[in-house]
């Protein structure tokens, strides 16, 4: 089983903020696959699905971004999943708006949600799909920037990349990180 874990903050206040791009992507994925998120008895909402014979679960923590690792740990405590089958979808200020980068593992890149997951899982050996939100802020304004709403014009410009990210999630379900990377490479060469 594959787990696709979106990073974001719960609640209406944060719904379309830059920090919630992980939620935005998996919400879009759930919508096109006719899935609904349900509350769990743990610190996350989830939606279970299947593509052909491949089962997966989408996860949205109910903790804030900085405590994402709590929900991640609960997944590993309650589901039979390998680290390599646990994909984290997250925002990244170090990438231009809409740019996507896939990694098999690595450090937190200055992202507190990733740092929390690494801390709670005691490993950085999980794949991630990083979605760029740009660096359009002054020194010291990072928190304000990531918690600001994505304006309509920006959203329209990144929407094709959100659609592409959802396609990458499908490839992850079918073929893991390798399947996702192969699809990504083919798309870049076309």
Commentary on this structure:
The protein is α/β, with parallel strands linked by helices. The chain has one domain: Peptidyl-tRNA hydrolase (Rossmann fold), CATH 3.40.50.1470. The protein has five helices and seven strands, in the order βαβββαββαβαα. Strands 2-3-4-1-5-7-6 form a seven-stranded mixed β-sheet. A hairpin with a 2-residue loop joins β3 and β4 (54-61). The termini are far apart. The model has no long low-confidence stretch (mean pLDDT 95).
Structural class: alpha/beta
| Known CATH architecture | 3-Layer(aba) Sandwich
Widest β-sheet, arrangement of strands: 2-3-4-1-5-7-6
CATH class, named Alpha Beta
pLDDT averaged over residues: 95
CATH homologous superfamily (4th level) name: Peptidyl-tRNA hydrolase
Number of helices: 5
Tally of domains: 1
Computed over alpha carbons, the radius of gyration is: 15 Å
Named CATH topology: Rossmann fold
Q: Which descriptor suits the 3D outline?
A: globular
Order of helices and strands: EHEEEHEEHEHH
Number of strands: 7
The percentage helix is: 40-55%
Q: Please outline the major beta sheet.
A: 7 strands, mixed
Which regions have little confidence, pLDDT < 50, spanning 5+ residues?
Answer: none
């Amino acid at each position: 089983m594959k787990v696709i874990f979106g990073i974001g903050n719960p609640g209406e206040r944060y719904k379309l903020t830059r920090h919630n791009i992980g939620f935005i992507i998996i919400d879009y994925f759930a919508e096109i696959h006719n899935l609904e998120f349900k509350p769990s008895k743990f610190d996350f909402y989830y939606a279970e699905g299947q593509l052909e014979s491949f089962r997966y679960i989408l996860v949205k923590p109910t903790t804030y971004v900085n405590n994402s690792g709590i929900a991640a740990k609960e997944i590993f405590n309650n589901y039979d999943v390998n680290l390599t089958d646990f994909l984290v979808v997250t925002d990244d200020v170090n990438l231009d708006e809409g740019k996507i980068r896939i990694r098999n593992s690595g450090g937190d890149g200055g992202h507190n949600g990733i740092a929390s997951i690494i801390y709670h899982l005691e490993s950085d050996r999980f794949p991630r799909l990083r979605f760029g939100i740009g660096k359009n802020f002054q020194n010291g304004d990072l928190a304000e920037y990531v918690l600001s709403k994505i304006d309509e014009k920006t959203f329209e410009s990144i929407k094709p990349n959100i659609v592409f990210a959802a396609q990458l999630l499908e490839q992850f379900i079918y073929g893991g990180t390798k399947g996702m990377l192969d699809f990504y490479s083919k798309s870049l060469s076309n």
